[in-house]
Amino acid sequence: MKTNANSSAKVLSLSKVGMKFPDGTEALRDVTFDVEPREFVSIVGPSGCGKSTILRIASGLLKQTSGEVMVDRERLGYVFQDATLMDWRTVQGNVELLAELQGFSAEEKKQRARDAIELVGLKGFENHYPNALSGGMKMRVSLARTLTLKPQVFLFDEPFGAVDEITRTHLNEETLKLFEHECFAGLFITHSISEAVFLSTRVHVMSSRPGTIVATYDIPFGYPRSPELRFDPAFGELSGTISHALKEAHA
Amino acid sequence: MRQLKDPDLIDVDASEAILSSELGEKGIRRWTESILPPILLGMAFLGLWYFISYVVLDEKRRFLLRPPHEVFLVGFANWKNFSEILAGLWSSTIVAVIGLALAITIGLTLATLMSQNKLIERAVFPYAVTLQAVPILAIVPLIGFWFGFGLNARVIVCVIISLFPIIVNTLFGLLSAPRGLHDLLTLQRVSRWTRLRKLMFPAALPAIFAGFRISAGLSVIGAIVGDFFFGRGDPGIGQLLQRYANRLMGEQLLASIIMSSLLGVVVFQLFGWIKEKAIGKWHQEQSG
Ligand SMILES: Nc1ncnc2c1ncn2[C@@H]1O[C@H](COP(=O)(O)OP(=O)(O)OP(=O)(O)O)[C@@H](O)[C@H]1O
Ligand SMILES: [Mg+2]
Hints:
Helix content of chain A: 25-40%
Oligomer: heterodimer
Distance between the termini of chain B: 29 Å
Bound molecules: adenosine-5'-triphosphate, magnesium ion
Strand order of the largest sheet of chain A: 5-6-7-3-8-9
Largest sheet of chain B: none
Helix content of chain B: over 70%
Number of helices of chain A: 7
CATH superfamily of the largest domain in chain A: P-loop containing nucleotide triphosphate hydrolases
CATH topology of the largest domain in chain B: MetI-like fold
CATH architecture of the largest domain in chain A: 3-Layer(aba) Sandwich
Strand content of chain B: under 5%
Mean pLDDT of chain B: 86
Radius of gyration of chain A: 18 Å
Number of helices of chain B: 11
Radius of gyration of chain B: 25 Å
Distance between the termini of chain A: 22 Å
Strand content of chain A: 15-25%
CATH superfamily of the largest domain in chain B: MetI-like
Number of strands of chain A: 9
Number of strands of chain B: 0
Shape of chain A: globular
Number of domains of chain A: 2
CATH class of the largest domain in chain B: Mainly Alpha
């Protein structure tokens, strides 16, 4: 089920990437995949198989020990597993952070933050401090903060792993809207197969350590997607197939 | 709605206090539960004090513990005596403030340098610990020998006593910024200075203020201890304490002790208040 991988218009490309930590742990071996503009690629895999490591390498936080990575780091957004907000900044201040570090003008910074806050539905909470927000709201702030950079590539590391199922469903729908609206390319790590299928154009399944991609599924549903998609029989069938592949990868 | 119980019967059950929702009742409960107990204990304490002064001690030995009202009349109500105590307290407060200001400046600088460079941290830390471990009395003669027996020596005692908590708390605070936020800043390729200013320093504020509070208390102690040994110049409260004790001026001695304790309490409260003003909006104690 592989699609055209050697298109020249890639925003992120990993080829034969391997990672061996100094303590001898081989986290990744021969990881190869691309993300094209307007693609939303998800990676599912057992815990500890190196999913976070892939994102850390893709973003440049970590240097791979073998293989090649190609990405434009100037326009890269990274949403971490936890919201990583600054407790001492209000919602507004947190969302402005990246634009501020990039040296945008005060006006531009304010404008971008206002837009992003509106986009994630946090209007009215600008002056709240993180300690007054729920887990789901903190994740939204984190999303908004990344959105201010208008990233070309959006890396998500299990962003909704820590919120409850209902909030997660909501956030999935909102992420989908953002993706349809903001035209970024996404690379999304998750434990949840239905989340992966619901959001993605393509899903990769990874094996346990050393992590490598063992199966790839193109998701045939077009955008915009409605929340009802989750109850489509084809959706259930595809989820079942991927779930099965994941179990095999785990074995 | 529950009936208000006879005040004697009100129990101090916290869960019940939360359950009682009627406002008036809450006010009364708060009063009986949080204000009344210390007042009662204070009265019991005064009673014990009177008991010891008048019953345990016979007349010849009563100078050892003068009854409360005499302490009040001689130590507080007599302006000549009281102003002497206030002047001593003021002089010691100045010493404590200068000492604390120096300790804060040195401590923040050292901790910041240590946070920026592992080598500096490794080099400085053992000495900071040693400084903390030095029995201050052992180096008193040396301090006098080097810095004289006046204000300078007293300030130095304050600095030595109050420096360590500032270094340790600040360093701990600076290193406490979460790794995720560090990663976030790394992705933006920020300078070392920006990282310090926008991440490490604000993240350290709760710990820094906790350190200030501890050190402020220690600095008051340092000023009084320093006073015992380095009494040249204006007499501080430590000098007065010694003088009153030597001359068997029990009333003034007790009044001075009460005033010193009050200074300690005020300093502690003041730094609590400063902390609340500075970071209360976003920082909540873990216990809360
Ligand atoms: N700095 C490091 N040094 C040594 N080993 C590491 C380091 N970082 C990660 N590892 C190891 O590499 C493997 C992959 O880690 P990674 O965090 O990428 O897993 P993951 O797939 O994201 O797991 P999870 O789903 O639980 O988040 C793990 O076995 C981990 O112990
Ligand atoms: Mg992970």
